[in-house]
Amino acid sequence: MAAGYDDPRDAALQMLQDTMKHLEEKEEELSRVKSEHREELEMLNEQNQNLQEWWGEEKHQLQELTDVLMAEKDILIAEKENLQREVDALRQSSSNSDAEKEILNRQLAGMKQELLQKEEDAQCAHRDFQARVEEFERRLAEERREKLEIQLRSSDQQERLSAEREEMSRRMGMFEAEFQKRLKQEEAEAADRMESMRLGFEKDVAKEKAAAEAHISQIRRQTEQQLRLEREVSDSVRHILRELPPLQAAMELGNSAALDSELTKWQGELLSDRFGESHAVVQAVVNMARERLMTWRGVEHNWKDTLREAEHGCGGLGLLTQQCQKLFRVIKEAQLTKLNLKMSDPEAMDQTLKVFLAWQERSMMYNNSVHRLIVAKILSCPQLGPFDFADLDSCLRRVDREEGGSHEVFLSRARAVVEDETTAPKDLKALLSHIETMLFFLKYAKLEDLNKTHEEFRCRSARLHPVVAACLGWAEQVYAPGRDLVRLSADKSLTDSSTIEQVLQDLRRPSSGHDTLNVFREIFYQWAVAMRKQFNLLVLPHHTQVVTLLAFQRFLEASIVPGGVGSAVHALIAQVGTGEGKSMIIAALAIYVVVALRKKVHVVVDDETLLERDFGLFRKLFESFEVHEAGAATPLRAVLCVSDEQITKGDASLVKRIDAEAHICYCEAKHVLSFYSSIARSEKPDFDRYSEYVLLLDEVDALVIDEEPNDAFVYPNEELSSLATHVAEAMQNGIPAESAVDNVNHPAGRRVLLEVKQEWAKGKEFVEGQDFVFLKETGRYCALQTGRANLNAWSLALECRNFQDKLSNSILFKERLFVMSKPRVFKRYHRILGLSGSIGSKPERELLHSTYKAAFFEVPPFLKTCKGSPFHEPVPANFGQQRSAIYVEDTIELQTKRIAEVAFQAHQRVPVLIIARDRSHVDLLVESLLSVLGNSARVASSEGLVRSLSRTLYESDPEQWKDNLSRATMPIRVHEGLSKLWRITVTDRRGGRGTDYRVDDDEVDDAGGLLLIPTFVPASRREWTQFLGRTARQDRRGQYCAVLCAADYPTHVRAEISHGRLGLNAVELILSSGDKEIAQRIQASAALYNSGVRVNELCEEILAHRPELLSQPAARELLVESCQRVRWMSVSEIDGAFGRLPGFDPRQIPTESVDLGRPEAPAHGYPQSLSAGRFVASPAAPKVIIFCLDWSCSMKSRDTRGPLNRFETCVRAIQGILNEQVKDADLIGMVCFGPTVQTIMAPSPKGTAGKSLSLRLAGLRPQEAGGTCFFDAVLKCLSMLSQRGIAPPGASRWLVCLTDGDDLGSSRGNTRGELVSRALSGGSVAAGLNMIMITVGSLKFENVQVIQSWVKHVSSAGGKGLHLGDKDASGISKAFDVVAEYLAGEVGGATEC
To answer: What is the pLDDT of residue 781?
Structure first.
């Protein structure tokens, strides 16, 4: 019962409320029964009354009948009287005729007299008179005759009337007698019926009354019994409400002592006696309390034991640090279990604080009040979240300064931040670092020189594009010396409140009537006000930032004018060094574009952590501005794109995807592409709306697309969905699927049939929890992608599975109708503005220039614009026995020995940072360095002399990784009396970029600064620049000494750099070789890029201006065909394919593409041509596919930017390929390699072995041991593919390999892949071979060349050879997507999901 409630008191209260409600329902039922019986009695009374009324009506009707008869009698009498009156009337008529005759005579006399008076009319009048006299006489004669006839009839009527009167009297007598007789009979019958009914009603009423009384009595007894039970439950609930709250309160408050005391009251209790049916609820609460108390006692036990160890005071600082680490873990564990240590044992908590303060005093160089505030704040914080002991140590070291003097400004601001209750522990380190940065820039603010700033810009303008040179020249004019934003007085402190107030006023006040800087002045002012509120410090822009902003302003303003100077350049990219305020420039530019240009901005930061940091830092600044649109002012709206899990209610600034109406949107590159996708999928696509947006890039990596530049979109088709549904229904009912399309003339009918049949089988093999999950919200299966349910993902196979399991009664069919070119999406923006730590190599610059019409300029470091300020670049330093700044050793063993020699020599004076090739190399170097230490290794290891910063450590123990980073630049003392030594830190290439190694020691600076030891030179100049940027930061010195291994580089490079022949020029040689490799990769993808651009242009035209083509089945099928084959068509072939669309002429559509031929030849077995308007899938022979997968220890890495590690990502991708691109007749095999090669499954038909392989795949895990026998594994796979009888003649053979490192452990004679190369060139491999090699990370150039030679050989033999080299593990999924596309094309083109 307690499972449904978090609080037992709530459960008890709910039970009491339910009981009261039940009682009320019982009372209502009793009232209803009484009411029913009352209604029955009323019904009987009503029936009796109705009977009485009926009898009354019967009597009334008899009386009415009598009255009618009497009325008829009266009528006869009245008729007799009428007849008598008629006779009298006839008698009077004779006398009336004489009177009329006298009147007529008088009239006649008058008329004669009138005739005499009118003689002129006499003749006419006389004739008339004579006629009238004659007529009168005639009528008079007729009347006399009629009177005689009436007299005769009157006598006949009198005789007839007498006869009728006698007959009527006789009939009346008879009727009256009959009526009296019938009336008496009916009265007797009615009396009998009334008596019978009365007796029946009385009997029924008595019976019903008795039954009702019995029923009421039964209900009363049941109700009384229920009330008695409910009173018992209510009593138990009252017991619960009285006795459980103290127990619950103790748990909620986290008070272990109070909980222990309360639980003693419940020992030995028979809960059923006191709590009745509620005893289960109470028991659950008590059990939970007991379990929690046991957990708390375990936490307290560790707590008290550690405190006792600390109280003894034995051991040094290392032991005390370990004890504090244990105590900190106890505190975090207590918070996780909701134990309040302070409330449970205040004295022990006070003692804990003392231990931490003692550790802080001993471990820090200075003991100040801010230290104590930080310790007290952290220990009293109720929820530390991700904050751990390493973070505490880092925060304390940032404020480890002597109070008073020059450090007081920093400590006072740090104290305010620590004392601020709104400052969460997780934000403390970043805020303290921000204070340091602000004070650093403030330190040199008065030394900035505007003249020197422009000189530095001019020094870097030798090869500038004319447009950029003009922009910088204009910036120099409007921001010339004397027009500074503010003028700082040398004798006034910039930390004084009055000075800050004056500076802020000057900052906002224009220097002239028309000040070009007006908009930026307001931005700088609002930013300074925000920083002052938070830190009480003055923040001013550097001259370099102002000039950079003005150059961008000029560029943007020129771009608005059609045909202006800005039209020749579409993208302007500035190279801004790390720590030079790049984020502030981006935020100010975004505001300027919105407020001044009335355009919207998409800010792309392709690092989730930095993205959230930058948006949070400038959010208040954005909110302080308004945008004037259509004559009205609206608040500037800025949003941040985050994942679904980070969306919080009430925060409108967090969105899942780009909000088209937001003025500023901070996002990643994937969100920009998704925004374009949403436009392409809209009902009325408006691709021209990009003219309203400006793209702002933090780093230009997103623009450098040198691998897969295109993406395809699928769209639903209602007509084909209906057809697919008919095919599915036929298959569901066991009817041949072909029957569903026999009478269908649709051009895509055959394609739909083939695809549904294929995906139907795949859908049946899907595994719940692995390929899909059931969502209650939709009532359907949803696809799983990278371990997460993706509602937007579509799969025809999953549509079939939903249909098979009756979760859907229809199939949603989609088809590829649009291809997006990623570079073209970026080019669609009104303008592109980029700020990057390094723009890159010459090939990358040329790519940016040719693709985006990009121009570049370099922003000088802030310190170089200050008078007399020290600016330092990393310098080569001579170390080792040969006193050289670069060593090139022949083998990795000699390289490791040389690294140890240089590192141990340098660490006596400066911290040392070694950048290894990868994580396994880090482990090797750490182990080797510790072994070199010999007898002192144990002491050195305990003090952390050699520390790892590998990605493997970060994933397994992030707290230790942060502790190692915090201590990387801290000194140690191995023995008392010796001078301090410095730590040696070994990191991988990820730690070589974006990680800050803070050095504050002046002695280290005097000795040259942090020493960087690169163990390799990367192929990318941008990455090399990042490596060197780990040292010589801010105003500190830096140095490097490279120790390389010649075996890591190609033969021609190795020959020149061996034995240090070239000295430091070896670095440039290696970088130049990398430039060539990058150029080759760019060139290799150029044709595919141009084909993608052309298809994108034509698809846009169709969707935006010719959508009617999509409603024509034949035209739509042609479009599907073209979009599916873009990888295998040149630009001219694309135009030809689209030209087959009715009324569509591609020649009328302008293009930016260049025809470089076909990107690739169609894969072996792929149909070379498609019929007009109808897709014909040629029957494909079974394929043989072997997956060769690296399962060495490094595949455990979780650097895929998803929830899965490298190996899990591979397994998930292979499962998807098996389900969607492999048919039952195809043969599949699996080989894994690490320190050894192991065959997981020999090639077997999927129809019989698919499930077995899926189960084996699900159970595979990476090996614990190191080693990568990659070459041996490839040789093994080729041998399996070449076995006789493995597949029918003509069958294609596919080898798909993935490795994340160089070969280490292959057999003698195959250490460089010699046996594989020999097998490929010697003809021992069967025909029809296709090879896709996926490499993750940076492999040795020599190994890359070997792999590329294999794929080239396969391609030249007519097969498909492809090398997919991904810089990091985030590209694994994308690489397998390419594999899936090739396999799909090889069988005739499956619809992309």
So the answer is: 93
Cα gap 968→823, rounded to integer Å = 41
Q: What is the per-residue pLDDT across 739-768, written as a single tens digit (0 to 9) for each?
A: 888 888 888 888 899 889 988 988 888 888
**Which of 602, 608, 578, 615 minimizes the C-alpha distance to 835?**
578
- Report pLDDT for 492: 79
Task: Give dist(CA 544, CA 549) in Å, integer.
Answer: 9
| Amino acid in the structure at residue 1351 | V
Question: Which residue is it, tokens 């008329």?
Answer: 111
Q: Residue 906 in contact with residue 879, Cβ under 8 Å? A: yes
Nearest-CA neighbor of 638 among 648, 627, 650, 649?
627
Q: In this structure, are residues 1113 and 1378 in contact, taking their beta carbons and an 8 Å threshold?
A: no
Q: Residue 721: how many CA atoms within 13 Å on its side-chain side? A: 14
Strands (E), 1194-1250: 1227-1233, 1237-1245
Are 833 and 812 spatial neighbours (Cβ–Cβ below 8 Å)? no
Residue with the two structure tokens 């190279």: 575
DSSP helix/strand/coil, 1175:
coil
The pTM assigned to this predicted structure is 0.69
Both tokens of 1058, joined, read 């061996």
CB 577, CB 1030: distance < 8 Å: no
> What would you report as the CA-atom Rg of the chain, rounded to the nearest whole angstrom?
51
- The type of residue at 1054 is R
Could you please report the per-residue DSSP string of 161-191?
HHHHHHHHHHHHHHHHHHHHHHHHHHHHHHH
pLDDT digits (tens, 9 = 90+) for 1000-1018: 888 999 999 999 999 999 9
Angle at the Cα of 734 from the Cα atoms of 731 and 737, rounded to 5 degrees:
40
Q: What pLDDT is recorded for position 1295?
A: 94
Q: Over 60: is that where the pLDDT of 682 sits?
A: yes
831-836 and 1361-1366 beta bridge pairing: unpaired
Q: What percent of the chain has pLDDT over 70?
A: 79
User: Which two structure tokens, joined as six digits, stand for 906?
Assistant: 């340098």
Which among 223, 206, 212 has a CA at the least distance from the CA of 34?
212
- The 3-class SS string of 27-50 reads HHHHHHHHHHHHHHHHHHHHHHHH
Q: Tens digit of pLDDT for each residue in 807-821?
A: 999 999 999 899 999
**What DSSP assignment string belongs to 1336-1382?**
ES---HHHHHHHHHHHHHHHHTTS-EEEEEESSGGGHHHHHHHHHHH
